[in-house]
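Record 1 of the preview.
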Amino acid sequence: MSERRNVLLIVVDQWRADFVPALGADFLRTPNLDRLCREGVTFRNHVTTAVPCGPARASLLTGLYLMNHRAVQNTVPLDARHFNLAKALRLIGYDPALIGYTTTTPDPRTSGPRDPRFLVLGDIMDGFRSVGAFEPNMDGYFGWIAQNGFELPPKREDIWLPEGVDSVPGATDKPSRIPAEFSDSSFFTERALTFLKGKQEKPWFLHLGYYRPHPPFVAPAPYHAMYKPEDMPRPVRADSPEAEAAQHPLLNFYIRNIRQGSFFHGAEGTGAALDEAQILQMRATYAGLITEIDTCLGRVFDHLEQTGQWDDTLIIFTSDHGEQLGDHHLLGKIGYHDESFRIPLVIKDPDAPERAGIIESAFTESVDVMPTILEWLGGEIPRAADGASLIPLVRGVTPAGWRDALHYEYDFRDVHYSRPETALGLSMDESSLCVIQDDDYKYVHFAALPPLFFDLRDDPHQFRNLADEPAYAGVVKDYAQKALSWRLKHAERTLTHHRATPRGLETRTPQTET
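->
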């Protein structure tokens, strides 16, 4: 092992945990991810602490829960006062490179209303150096395609439509008109290899982002036909959308309002209208997009091995959030279901080869990634961070007092349209929920809607709400109190370990607290 310390943080988009072969998805072909799992530690119980993309990435890269960073939805600004991974890396001599995106809307107090960054879904988080941007509006990607001689259609997003059609009426087995060599996954891979080859012997940190398997669910050839729908896992859902929707007002709203057009260009109707055959085709396409990413990762891994960097590099593979894929009659990343929040996490620590191939079952969360990277590089973990380093778990040691449950949040306000608030009779600041979940139970608390409680031992897919069942009243109360205690424990604490004294400023550490 040399003294150089490199970090490759791979962040894919919308890849759910049960589409990882090491965790049971034996229908998938991902030889490069399989290799990473064989040589690293795969985490079985890992969640993002927020959805959708913007909030999820804010938590991943700041180490803060949603209740503290408050970038609660896509397009909602991230307060400039929050520290993040990129800024922390700069303090220890790294120039953190980013390929892809972070979906970060800047603090409006640091700019003005005419700033072009307020015209798009999100921009690059402060502190990163972009070496292969997707944003704003995917201009970098589309420019790369054009520079390589591919003629863009008048509406450039139509490259993801099959040849000769103006819309996709739903799930399709047809390939996108863009060839795989010019896909967005190829674009990010080319940018990664360009960056890595330019670094030569200098230590580096690279956030390598991929857009897939995010919709539109259309894959380039040959990935569009790599999987058969009949080989895909069947959707987990109630007998009808109406039966599913009866569980809770928020679920009812989404079942009635999620549109297929957000997942298949030009499609009509609601996501709940998809029949099983369409869902299985969608999943086959989703699996194809996953294998395309895996092929791209193989190129990056090969370069690291050929240049002698494979054994010098901490590699972390994860996603920003999951995807419902028709489960519970839903599409997207919403609500309170596991499919939206459970995501992959694989860590290959070159300092712990003896742990190769381990499946770790401890409860871990996306806020743990930032502290993990900083500890491995010898940096200081911010006092405000809500997560904790996973390096001990990677090396076979469970820290004392490790969390005994998973926690995640969802803020369902719609700042622009206010559709959930209007439909449910809520104010913007009442439109939120938090979840506490362990191996036995799952409790969902809403700010202004009825709670949910599930006995996961008998109902792992969460169809029966027991919140009002007298037999569970005591357990529901216990989990509600646990959720409250969790929020109190993780209230914002950037400066709470300092105090003024007659001798001047005194700084306390967790080891000296009582």
